[in-house]
Design goal:
- This protein is an alpha/beta fold.
- It is built from 7 helices and 10 strands.
- Helix 3 packs parallel to helix 5 and helix 5 runs parallel beside helix 6.
- The radius of gyration is 17 Å and the shape is globular.
């Protein structure tokens, strides 16, 4: 089968269940979708709708009960755990609500961490470019405990960008930020998609953020109900 290179992500009939018998919940219920390269897609839905579970499956952080996820034509769940982890490091950047910075590392060290895990060379020019892009050129040696929430999230975004991944997955990345900082962070992520030619898929419950996306997919009870 010929791969459509314009579709960076293809989800085919994905299923993920939790519990058994009467207590079984279909967090993702036979969901299929395709994401175009270079676009910003927002996935929205109420709490418990299955949108975060879907994002974790797309990113290979969890394995489905059935179905496939293809990133750049690669069936990621055909890979064994070690190879899947390697694929994630090279192809996917993650941005979470809680930043997930290493407290003992400064901004620069947190940003280059994925490169070190993959034994890849750190190019000073690349790091400096990203620092300038996120507005933290003067904070390279700052520790996370002296950063504001917005600065921490900017550092997390830079860490996701530094490997130049094909796909960036963000799970409520502005959930801990005030409205002004939220707008700044989303604008930054949008500009990164444009400037670095990347694809952004973001989980959000915020209508304002959804309106900034190129496309909005609504999830209810683990199914796509509006696109």
């Amino acid at each position: 089968m010929k791969t459509d290179i314009s579709k960076i992500l293809v989800v085919e009939d994905l299923v993920k269940c939790y519990g058994t018998g009467e207590n079984m919940v279909r967090a993702v219920d036979h969901t299929s979708l395709e994401i175009e390269r270079g676009k910003f897609t927002a996935i929205v839905g109420r709490s418990g709708s299955g949108k975060s579970t879907l994002l974790h499956l797309i990113g290979g952080l969890d394995r489905p009960d059935a179905g496939k996820v293809r990133i750049e034509g690669k069936d990621i769940f055909a890979l064994k755990d070690e190879r899947l982890a390697e694929f994630r490091r090279k192809k996917i950047g993650f941005v979470f609500q809680d930043y997930n910075l290493i407290p003992s590392l400064n901004v620069w060290e947190n940003i280059v961490l994925p490169l070190g895990l993959d034994n890849r060379k750190v190019r000073r020019q690349d790091v400096e470019e990203v620092l300038v892009k996120i507005g933290l050129a003067d904070k390279a040696e700052a520790m996370p405990n002296v950063l504001s929430g917005g600065q921490k999230q900017r550092t997390a975004i830079a860490r996701a960008l530094i490997t130049r991944p094909a796909l960036i997955l963000a799970d409520e990345p502005t959930g801990n930020l005030d409205s002004q900082t939220e707008l700044e962070v989303i604008s930054l992520m949008k500009s990164c998609v444009t400037d670095f030619g990347q694809t952004l898929v973001m989980i959000t419950h915020d209508e304002m953020i959804a309106q900034m996306a190129d496309r909005v997919i609504e999830i209810t009870d683990g199914k796509v109900v509006n696109d």
